[in-house]
């Protein structure tokens, strides 16, 4: 096993995954803080902070941050999710010290310059506007808000225009000082690395993180319901979903197999019945979103206004039918797809780096590819059927955006799940 872990004196975990056949290193800091840790008045602050981290430190200007990495041919980026924020680089192995130094610098020494903040505020407002103008993006935010109303998990990662317009430099400093403690961080590296060398560099560079730890988090509260919005569009964009299990639930992989055979590819039931046989959509697929204490199972489709009335009942019926007449062939095919996805994902050191960090944050330690594949292979027909049935009978969430005049009623759709 190539993975090694060390917990530093400050509480940060350093994890490395050595690959002998590459010359590059993917590395970064995964912070166990995201939109879920925000109160309503500062919703959007995690995402804004991610943007501002690249806008200058006490040692580097914004231009120098990007130039120093790109001068050695490296790549640097970041993202914000509902449960974590990541800052990461990919460089040649001889430039790993520079990359660690830059990441440590932006996480400890960002100036959050007032002029830069005003400029970046406008960029984020443009990002929100772009999302609002993209119906197959914004319908996902509507779904999240309807399924999980009046809680942090249900709010947009980008935040509202009102919040983004009012968040101050002091708000950002305060959030970072209370949330970005070393105990909430995993520094992960994969590629041509020496574990002790990475540990020494991270220990040296990350010497000014806040000691205070504040990690309040609302428990997930699923409610469900309906949000249907008329818009003058060519298509209706619709998501239909139900509550499901967390990452750590024993039935997690059972659900992944069910998801794959229901709507995970061109051979899936939804694709074959709804697109290939009936021609009702261009795009249809199922997906699941998981958190530390729950999750959402969903189906997305985009269809014309004349087809929405047929589409939605068929979508519900296919979900129910998949719990009744599954075949061994379908389960075997879905297992093969999942196993291939795991193996292919492990062929990239960037993918391995992120996977390692997230496994430590979710499970408290790494899981080998062999362990994951064994869990997938252990899933059988009865377990998949049970995972599918566990979705039925609850309160669904339905969101639709577009020419929705022919949309079936919510109660009619919910009743089909009890058939």
From TrEMBL:
<feature type="coiled-coil region">
    <location>
        <begin position="107"/>
        <end position="134"/>
    </location>
</feature>
<feature type="domain" description="Peptidase M16 N-terminal">
    <location>
        <begin position="14"/>
        <end position="159"/>
    </location>
</feature>
<dbReference type="InterPro" id="IPR001431">
    <property type="entry name" value="Pept_M16_Zn_BS"/>
</dbReference>
<keyword id="KW-0482">Metalloprotease</keyword>
<dbReference type="Pfam" id="PF05193">
    <property type="entry name" value="Peptidase_M16_C"/>
</dbReference>
<dbReference type="InterPro" id="IPR050361">
    <property type="entry name" value="MPP/UQCRC_Complex"/>
</dbReference>
<keyword id="KW-0378">Hydrolase</keyword>
<keyword id="KW-0645">Protease</keyword>
<feature type="domain" description="Peptidase M16 C-terminal">
    <location>
        <begin position="166"/>
        <end position="338"/>
    </location>
</feature>
<dbReference type="Pfam" id="PF00675">
    <property type="entry name" value="Peptidase_M16"/>
</dbReference>
<dbReference type="InterPro" id="IPR011249">
    <property type="entry name" value="Metalloenz_LuxS/M16"/>
</dbReference>
<comment type="similarity">
    <text>Belongs to the peptidase M16 family.</text>
</comment>
<keyword id="KW-0175">Coiled coil</keyword>
<protein>
    <submittedName>
        <fullName>Peptidase M16</fullName>
    </submittedName>
</protein>
<dbReference type="InterPro" id="IPR011765">
    <property type="entry name" value="Pept_M16_N"/>
</dbReference>
<dbReference type="InterPro" id="IPR007863">
    <property type="entry name" value="Peptidase_M16_C"/>
</dbReference>
């Amino acid at each position: 096993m190539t993975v090694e872990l060390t917990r530093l004196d400050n509480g940060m975990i350093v994890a490395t995954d050595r690959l002998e056949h590459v010359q590059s290193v993917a590395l970064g800091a995964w912070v166990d803080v995201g939109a879920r840790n925000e109160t309503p008045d500062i919703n959007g602050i995690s995402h804004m902070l991610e943007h501002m981290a690249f806008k200058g430190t006490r040692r580097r200007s914004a231009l120098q941050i990007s130039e120093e990495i790109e001068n050695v041919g490296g790549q640097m980026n970041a993202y914000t999710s509902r449960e974590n924020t990541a800052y990461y680089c990919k460089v040649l192995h001889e430039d790993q010290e520079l990359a660690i130094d830059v990441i440590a610098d932006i996480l400890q020494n960002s100036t959050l310059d007032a002029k830069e903040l005003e400029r970046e505020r406008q960029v984020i407002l443009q990002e929100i506007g772009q999302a609002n103008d993209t119906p197959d993006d914004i319908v996902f935010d509507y779904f999240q808000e309807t399924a999980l109303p009046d809680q942090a998990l249900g709010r947009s990662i980008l935040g509202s225009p009102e919040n983004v317009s009012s968040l101050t430099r002091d708000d950002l400093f305060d959030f970072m000082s209370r949330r970005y403690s070393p105990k909430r961080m995993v520094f992960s590296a994969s590629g041509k690395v020496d574990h002790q060398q990475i540990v020494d560099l991270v220990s040296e560079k990350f010497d000014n993180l806040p000691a205070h730890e504040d990690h309040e988090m609302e428990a997930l509260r699923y409610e469900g319901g309906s949000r249907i919005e008329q818009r003058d569009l060519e298509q209706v964009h619709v998501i239909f979903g139900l509550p499901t299990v967390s990452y750590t639930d024993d039935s997690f992989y059972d659900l992944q197999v069910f998801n794959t055979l229901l709507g995970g590819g061109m051979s899936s039931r939804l694709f074959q019945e709804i697109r290939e046989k009936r021609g009702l959509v261009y795009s249809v697929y199922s997906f699941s979103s998981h958190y530390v204490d729950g999750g959402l199972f969903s189906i997305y489709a985009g269809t014309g206004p004349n087809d929405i009335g047929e589409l939605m009942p068929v979508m519900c019926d296919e979900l129910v039918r998949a719990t009744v007449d599954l075949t061994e062939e379908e389960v075997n095919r879905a297992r093969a797809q999942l196993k291939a996805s795991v193996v292919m994902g492990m062929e990239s050191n960037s993918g391995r780096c992120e996977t390692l960090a997230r496994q430590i944050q979710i499970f408290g330690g790494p899981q080998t590819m062999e362990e994951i594949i064994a869990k997938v292979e252990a899933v059988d027909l009865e377990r998949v059927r049970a995972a599918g049935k566990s979705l039925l009978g609850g309160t669904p969430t339905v969101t639709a955006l577009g020419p929705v005049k022919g949309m079936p009623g919510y109660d009619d759709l919910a009743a089909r799940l009890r058939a």
